[in-house]
């Protein structure tokens, strides 16, 4: 059976700009994300540039990776940056107590991370240690990275082989301060964030965009406390956005509970729908946190940064439970698509989002085989690839009519998700059919500008848990979509069951 839905889009009413940074990434010293994922070392048989995997860099450049958050996550609040600079052989070791209780040798530190960002063409987002560090330590790290003259930290950087300062646009003040980042109360953290932010200085022309560790899921009190905390400072400094420029938010999608999150593969159709309903919750969270922020910042100068999001499943059998290695299927791809629709709709407030995590951890773009080193692009990667047209484009409102819903527990899950954007003479429409079983058609009612051409791509597979492996690299890969036809209102698009479709429009 096929059913029909209508999406009305006014192509001549561009909204807020969708920051390319909502397509941002996160890489933590966790499992095989850094070690074995990004970093193999100079002597590795895997092709590398100064120890950084060339194939990983190439794959991420192909999706125009805009930024990379590092070194955590929970790890960030245990990390002391001085341990990761200077000759590699003499760097001290530490225990990575959050993730597998393994010994970290600090081979990948500040210089390696900045080198990685330069190879990627991505903006660095450094997550500073507020949980177990000191104000002076964080302040010195900023100076080390960004100062040009002969200050003590700039001199140390030079002695370690880097003459010029780096540009560091994004700076995190702690991570999950309500949990692994110090088990703090909101009021306590808000005071500390003000203090730390003050000493994270703008050196020379480097302007830091400071991001205060934000709320877990629906903790509106946390967001409200942070917003209130710098309200008085903002009032004192006309034109300034206060000590920090953004607050963050973390939300992970699971099909089960925290103790049994559900498996990445072999899940039931019911679990598919539960997952989609949980992914849709991002929309509600953005609305609720934005509403709180609007009260204190009606002109939307303070950003909301979703610096951790994605699926979190039970680890793959036989892998270290502390390494958070999971398979990535068509279901993960649809979860990503639903999140991007929400980020696009909230473009006015959501300035950045970072999927957790880029390689070999949680909802990864890339999986690398620990034995052969083979690289696999996941279905999630392909959604990022199909959406590059949304980077820095103007959001377009998509008014959906006739969308069927399905009851999932107490919520009604709309079975179609959509968003759109326009940049010059091209528009991109993203369409997800979240229905596990039913194909549907959707009519794009396109108004305001003439559509003179179109191309379309589709991402789907027979099985809901289809995924790519070293043996089958393209089991889930985008293909040209022939199912787009002229319609009196615009275009009619076939949406196979459990599929993601993008339609690129040429406009006049
Ligand atoms: O991404 C894995 C972990 O999830 C991060 O370290 C932490 O911030 C969050 O709880």
TrEMBL record:
Alphabetical list of PANTHER family matching this protein: ALPHA-L-ARABINOFURANOSIDASE C-RELATED, INTRACELLULAR EXO-ALPHA-L-ARABINOFURANOSIDASE 2
Keyword Ligase among record annotations: no
EC number: 3.2.1.55
Span of domain Alpha-L-arabinofuranosidase C-terminal: 307-499
SUPFAM superfamilies from the UniProt entry: (Trans)glycosidases, Glycosyl hydrolase domain
Gene Ontology terms: biological process: L-arabinose metabolic process; polysaccharide catabolic process
Name recorded for this polypeptide: non-reducing end alpha-L-arabinofuranosidase
Pfam families: Alpha-L-AF_C (PF06964), ASD1_dom (PF22848)
Catalytic activity field: Hydrolysis of terminal non-reducing alpha-L-arabinofuranoside residues in alpha-L-arabinosides
Keyword annotations from UniProtKB, A to Z: Carbohydrate metabolism, Glycosidase, Hydrolase
């Amino acid at each position: 059976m096929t059913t029909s839905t209508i999406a009305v889009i006014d192509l001549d009413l561009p909204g807020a700009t969708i920051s390319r940074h909502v397509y941002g990434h996160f890489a933590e010293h966790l499992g095989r994300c850094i070690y074995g994922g990004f970093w193999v070392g100079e002597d590795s048989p895997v092709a590398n540039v100064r120890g950084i995997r060339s194939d990983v860099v190439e794959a991420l450049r192909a999706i125009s990776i805009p930024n990379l958050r590092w070194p955590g996550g929970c790890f960030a609040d245990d990390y002391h940056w001085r341990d990761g600079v200077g000759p590699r052989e003499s760097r001290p070791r530490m225990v990575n107590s959050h993730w597998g209780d393994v010994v970290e040798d600090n081979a990948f530190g500040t210089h390696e991370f900045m080198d990685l960002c330069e190879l990627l063409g991505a903006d660095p987002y450094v997550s500073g240690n507020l949980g177990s560090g000191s104000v002076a330590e964080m302040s010195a790290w900023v100076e080390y990275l960004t100062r040009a003259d002969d200050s003590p930290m700039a001199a140390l950087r030079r002695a370690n082989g880097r003459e010029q300062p780096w540009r560091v646009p994004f700076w995190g003040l702690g991570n999950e301060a309500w949990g692994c980042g110090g088990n703090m109360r909101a009021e306590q953290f808000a005071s500390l964030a003000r203090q730390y932010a003050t000493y994270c200085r703008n050196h020379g022309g480097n302007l830091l965009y400071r991001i205060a560790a934000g709320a877990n899921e629906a903790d509106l009190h946390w967001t409200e406390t942070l917003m209130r905390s710098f309200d008085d400072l903002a009032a004192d400094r006309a034109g300034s956005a206060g000590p920090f420029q953004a607050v963050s938010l973390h939300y992970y999608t699971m099909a089960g509970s925290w103790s049994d999150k559900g498996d990445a593969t072999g899940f039931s159709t019911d679990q598919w729908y539960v997952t989609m309903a949980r992914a849709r919750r991002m929309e509600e969270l953005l609305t609720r946190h934005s509403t709180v922020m609007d009260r204190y910042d009606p002109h939307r100068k303070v950003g909301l940064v979703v610096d951790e999001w994605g699926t979190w499943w039970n680890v793959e059998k036989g892998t270290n439970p502390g390494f958070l290695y999971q398979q990535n299927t068509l279901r993960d791809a649809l979860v990503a698509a639903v999140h991007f629709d929400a980020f696009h709709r909230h473009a006015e407030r959501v300035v950045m989002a970072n999927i957790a995590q880029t390689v070999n951890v949680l909802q990864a773009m890339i999986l690398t085989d620990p034995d052969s080193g083979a690289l696999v692009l996941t279905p999630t990667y392909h959604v990022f690839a199909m959406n590059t047209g949304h980077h820095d484009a103007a959001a377009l409102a998509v008014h959906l009519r006739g969308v069927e819903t399905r009851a999932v527990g107490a919520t009604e899950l709309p079975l179609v998700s959509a968003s759109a954007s326009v940049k010059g003479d091209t528009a991109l429409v993203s369409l997800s059919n979240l229905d596990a079983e039913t194909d549907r058609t959707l009519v794009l009612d396109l108004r305001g500008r003439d559509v003179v051409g179109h191309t379309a791509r589709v991402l789907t597979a027979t099985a809901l848990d289809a995924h790519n492996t070293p043996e089958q690299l393209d089991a889930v890969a985008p293909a040209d979509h022939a199912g787009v036809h002229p319609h009196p209102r615009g275009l009619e698009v076939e949406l196979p069951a459990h599929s993601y479709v993008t339609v690129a429009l040429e406009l006049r």
